[in-house]
Amino acid sequence: MGAPPLDDAVAEGVYARKQLLSGAGLVAWSHARRFQAAFEFGAHGSGRRVLDYGCGDGSFLAMLLSAAAPPSEAVGADIAADLVEDCRRRLGSRGASFVTLPQLAERPPASFDAIFCMEVLEHVLDTEEILDRLDQLLAPGGALIVSVPVETGLPMVVKQAARRVAGWRGIGDYPGTTPYRPAEWLPTLLAGARQHVQRPVHVNPDGSRFHDHKGFNWMRLREQIRSRFELDRVLSSPFAWLPPHLGTQAWFVASKRDTAAHHV
Asked: Who contacts 219 (Cβ-Cβ below 8 Å, separation ≥6)?
């Protein structure tokens, strides 16, 4: 099942322009494969209430609402108020609503049957807090779908080279990430499920803090998700048949844990 093509309103999105419509073929192809994977997870969500946590420019929700079986409610949430306003302007008439994270905090528990969180958790400082909040928002029997970049092993080497070239060419969304020191390369290539190198912290103009990609460990996140949810599947993109250790993104498909049964 293919994702619907980008129409003009979606193509105007800041990330759609930089990634899905990038002048670098590899960048555009890689992000298109990621959106295709997400669309396949969500395209059968007729009647479900869906949240895209960290929705960016709203491209994914726009695609999902164009599916043959769209969700009954589609909410996009983002930390950036200007992105939220832009999403409302371009896509609000399609049935999606867009909110800032403080506005999302007003939603009651169990508000959503499916929560997508794509390419977000690698940037947050307190992953545990975000996972707790997503668990609260997820309804019993609900599904959590998370994607994060693979920044360990051989994929890290390939990505660092691709980002450097893209940054030189001024394309994509890769102005560069914090470089690895020589002593950090081997721990990153051989990383296990523990944090292997110190992660740099950056500060936005508004004072909020975030990580770049350096040092992100998808295997550590896998264990954090497993501690709160029933982890059903771990997949990879751009090719689902590759193990995540060799992919560009790792996908976690988890379900709401039955806490009563878990404590029996």
From this structure: 152, 191, 192, 193
Q: Which CATH number fits domain 8-151+213-257: 3.30.1780.10, 3.40.50.150, 1.20.1260.10, 3.40.50.2000?
A: 3.40.50.150
Cα–Cα distance, 233 to 254 (Å, whole number): 7
How far, rounded to the nearest angstrom, does the alpha carbon of residue 60 sit from its chain's CA centroid?
Answer: 10
Does residue 129 carry a pLDDT above 90?
Answer: yes
For 231, how many CA atoms within 13 A lie in the half-sphere containing its CB?
14
pTM of the model: 0.90
- Mean of pLDDT over the chain: 86
CA distance 158 to 153: 9
74, pLDDT greater than 90? yes
